[in-house]
């Protein structure tokens, strides 16, 4: 067929495709959250979905699919059409950690997802019971070196970022601690509050209220900068544990292969929400740092942390429960 005839055949198709993308969205959108209702991820996703709904002119419905550290939700999203009507609220745990821990997580981080934007991050911190003798990182290191393996730390379970912060802490400080995995961060924190275990590595926003009420002490922040809400608490480097940096992030993604005009529209609207002062203030007051990025910047962050987490897990021979 002559080239001009091929072009004539293609023109109606391209015009129809362009119109379809311009009309998107024409029905409700589902935002899949890989944690149960009421958790920290859900608390961020719901107001975000409401704001996105207002900007797109269609309902954005939250669908909680908890389990397997996010694998169930991620695998579910890969089974949906690449049409922009399913959004995944992914995290470093699911996208950068799980592929190194599970033989068959049910998804491929790089082949199955199109990043849209980073949304938020919260550094992990070392938190101790207020009645414990530990007031500085130096106190913890000294105790751990005096009796290797005798000092316990809790986490939300084997292989999560809290556990991996503890692994990194041991590597960088030359200490040996005993990891006590729990079924979730709240359970571990309950035992820190009750004195059953002396300390744990946890997300800042999960322990901030307890620190303000005097029930725990936050010894250091696993970040390169101090937390704005805790200006007197040092970073790990400042406290004598350089290299202990663990700042878990979350972000919005869609299926790989989603048409570029839809990706561009989602990127534009989501970034506008994330840059809104009213939206930022609501979450930053809880210790969450609100972020935004281009799809390419988010993709690079995933790749960097995927490689770093893989190396850490391999070096420490971390296994899941």
TrEMBL record:
Cross-referenced InterPro entries: BUG, Bug_dom1
Keywords from the named record: Receptor, Signal
Gene3D superfamilies referenced in this protein's UniProt entry, alphabetically: Bordetella uptake gene, domain 1, Periplasmic binding protein-like II
Signal sequence segment: 1-22
One Pfam family named in its UniProt record: TctC
Membrane spanning residue stretches: none
Matches recorded under CDD domains: PBP2_Bug_TTT (cd07012)
Assigned protein family: Belongs to the UPF0065 (bug) family.
Protein known as: Tripartite-type tricarboxylate transporter receptor subunit TctC
């Amino acid at each position: 067929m002559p080239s001009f005839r091929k072009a004539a055949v293609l023109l109606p198709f391209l015009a129809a495709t362009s119109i379809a993308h311009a009309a998107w969205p024409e029905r409700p959108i589902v935002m899949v959250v890989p944690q149960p209702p009421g958790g920290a991820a859900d608390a961020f996703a719901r107001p975000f979905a409401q704001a996105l709904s207002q900007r797109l002119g269609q309902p954005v419905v939250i669908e909680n699919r908890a389990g397997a550290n996010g694998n169930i939700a991620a695998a579910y999203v890969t089974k949906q059409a690449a049409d922009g009507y399913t959004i995944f609220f992914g995290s470093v745990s699911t996208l950068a950690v799980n592929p190194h821990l599970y033989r068959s997580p049910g998804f491929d981080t790089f082949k199955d997802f199109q990043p849209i934007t980073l949304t938020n991050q919260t550094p992990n911190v070392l938190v101790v019971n207020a009645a414990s003798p530990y007031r500085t990182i130096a106190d913890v290191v000294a105790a751990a070196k005096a009796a290797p393996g005798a000092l316990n730390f809790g986490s939300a379970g084997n292989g999560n970022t809290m556990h991996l912060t503890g692994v990194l802490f041991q590597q960088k400080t030359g200490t040996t601690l005993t990891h006590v995995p729990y079924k979730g961060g709240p359970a571990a924190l309950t035992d820190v509050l009750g004195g059953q275990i002396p300390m744990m590595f946890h997300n800042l926003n999960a322990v901030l209220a307890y620190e303000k009420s005097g029930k725990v002490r936050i010894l250091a922040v696993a970040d390169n900068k101090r937390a704005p809400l805790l200006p007197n608490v040092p970073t790990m480097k400042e406290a004598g544990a350089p290299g202990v940096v663990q700042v878990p992030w979350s972000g919005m993604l869609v299926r790989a292969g989603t048409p570029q005009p839809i990706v561009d529209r989602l990127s534009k609207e989501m970034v506008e929400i994330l840059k809104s002062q009213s939206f930022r203030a609501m979450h930053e007051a809880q210790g969450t740092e609100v972020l935004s990025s281009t799809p390419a910047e988010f993709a690079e962050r995933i790749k960097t942390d995927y490689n770093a987490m893989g190396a850490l897990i391999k070096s420490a021979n971390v296994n899941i429960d």
